[in-house]
User: What shape does this take?
Amino acid sequence: MSTHPTDSGMATAEFAAAAEAPTALDDGKPPATAGARKWLQFRFLIRFQSLLGLVLVLFGGIIFSPRRNGEILFLSADNLANIVRSVSETGIIAVGMTFVIIAGGIDLSVGAVLGLSGVLVARLMIDWNYGTALAIVIVLIAGLLFGVLQGLVSNYMRIQAFIVTLAGLQLARGLARTISGDKFINISYGDGAKQAPSSFSVLGDRFFGGVLPVSALVFLGVGIIGAVMLNTTRFGRHVFAVGGNERAARLSGINVRYVKIVTFAICGLTAALSGILDAGQLAFANPDSGTGYELTAIAAVVIGGTSLFGGEGTVVGTLAGALLLGTLNNILQLNNINANLQLIVTATIIVLAAALQHLASRRRST
Amino acid sequence: MEPNGAAPNGTPPPLLEMQGIGKAFGGVRALRGVDLTIRPGEVHALIGENGAGKSTLMNIMSGAIADYEGKMRLSGLEIRFSSPQGALKVGVATVFQELDLVPGLSVAHNLFLGQEPRRSGIFVDNSTMHRRAEAVLQRVGGGISPRSIVGNLRLGQQQAVAIAKALAVGEPRILILDEPTAALSTHEVERLFEIIRLLRSRGVAIVFISHRLEEISQIGDRVTVLRDGRAVATVPASTPQEQLVSLLIGESLRALFPPAGTARSEDRLTLENFSYRPRRPSPEWQAPHDINLTVRAGEIVGLVGLLGAGRTELLQVLYGTAPPGLQSGSVKVDGRPLRIGSPLAALRRGIGFVPDDRRGSGLVTTRSVTENLILADLKRLSTVGVVRAGRVRDALRWGLPRLKIKAAGADAPILSLSGGNQQKVLIGRILLRQPDLLLLDEPTRGVDIGAKAEIYHLVRSLAASGLAVLVASSELPELAGWCDRLVVLRQGRMVADLPPDTDPARVLALAADTNTTQEQQ
Assistant: This one.
């Protein structure tokens, strides 16, 4: 049986071409530079989409702001401080949530943990006579342990974070109502029985000539710590690796379970901090406080460019995302626009941010 | 059975003609000017090393890739498929390696998925569907109930169902099978070949993509060899194996391999009567057993074996990623017993591992070249938990030129790199930890020839400076050209330790899992 004539012709042509292989070796394959560079610029835009959005919204705020005697009300120090204060609680939580989501998880319990923490700090001070500092530390540790518990259950019983933290939400809310006797706890300051130490009232104060609220300062502080942690520490890299490719992380000697559990701990800690601030600002603790905050926090994270699939995101983006939502609501409020419309606008922005994200990931995979 | 369809005179008109087919993915050329003809009633095998362009060509033929250069004619008429469904309509059916079945549904439901016979337009007519399913299943040899749940069937049976699904629409003129035997046992392969012969006898042309040369002489009529994106030759399937092997690698490829090194006296890895038994045995995970193996400093040892022979599994055991189980015999690294634990424990003992599944277990796809490169070495690069930018720069300065990584920049996304450069990053990730023993699993899979040669030279130069390397590959020519010794595994057992210039046919015979060849040796 002989080789087909055309086939043998092909074969010789191929051998001639194959002889050139060593030259191809010397210069190698040119990297896809042009495409890669274009993509880098594009990625830069995606990475800071929320910052750009925030700038746009700020401009919108100036344009649409009501004026009094020529003064732009939107830009008044009071108003700007109010914007930061209004998003500080969900914003703090969103920073913790960023860690969890980048590591590939989700935490639905944060709003309920906020409620639980507020109630707990109030009872500690009012009924069990703890000092401000100790009460705060205990509540922060409790929040952290709550996160650790969820992380342990999720990692060792192999249940998805969504389910575990959905259960955690119910548990925390149930505990909050039990501890509070299912009612508001009013916090009155003083040295007497059933009173909280007056130092706790600092949390509701404003610094710098009564302009900058404490909660806003705490929010910015948490944001800076979170951004530094995620960007400069070994742990931060581990979080990205675990969320980006868990198996690769494990093969690189990273303790994947530890990393995931710590992200839940961080998230629980931020939720507890928000709960303490909430009680401090309102001067009462409501067991149902923080309902729905988990969704606002997730929205801020997503608008900030963090992928719900894990492996990418920034704290700076999250901060911008939270501020963007707050600023938008503020503009609508200043113009006396119906609160229901605010929800609709928020919805549009979430979808827009997610669509941009999707575009980015499609770019990456080609 | 017709012996061969290659007689020049009685050649029937071609069923499918492909002319000058070319395709590039980004900057990487997968196919260049491929010509191919498929005749009615022939079994046409497509072979080639990984990255030779087999799957790209198959995807074009089956309609999965619509955007390509060149022309295709079916029975003389020029066609261009836009989707596998479009191809199916004109009689070109494909059974992909990832079987297109819904495991939770019954065989009959799978066969008629989306085109179930209806009663009054809305209800699925179950009795008609089962009757028709029975008829279709008969055509692939029968023995499978239409009511069985697909997920409960053995893999070979699932394969038959997938083929039946291609037949359910109507008899195809061309049936494309993508590595159909890759995951089948010897017995199941026999069954599959019976189905293929049955279809061929009815005039169906079969395009058969395979890795295993011995199967081709068994079932094929003609073979087209692809190499580096070109169709090198189309020859009768009866062509001797050695000739096919040299067509596969090409003479000039020899030049890609670095000169052999010299092994030193220190033993890096010693396995004595080593066996590993997972607590929960599974048919997909071939436990390695009865391994007696030494890898010395400066030496590259190749692990040869068929798919499922336990090559990957042995590397996984050593690196601590195997499913939990018990070991017997001894493993020593640098003379001290190795306690098999976790990747971290292995890394601490100076063992590095580069997995075969680059995308699934290697790359952190969302991150940059730098982040991927330094991932395993962050501890050394940081002080009290803070990663030091200066040390990262030093690591890049050390790594990028040495590994010859070509990227738009150190901050370029890892996925913007070619497969070969991605692989170099993964090897670099482990090298930053300065291992004494390097385990490589399919290090050149999906890598272009230039990068392959660079990887061969890189690993050889590392070996020259004292590294011991154990490399598993499904490409025998690669191992023969690159390694100092070949260790053959068969069904998890080590059966031979050979010099690299051993006759490939003998190595393959040793690796084959038939008892007859074992007795021949």
Summary: Chain B is about 35% helix and 25% strand. Residues 1-8, 515-521 of chain B have pLDDT under 50 and may be disordered.
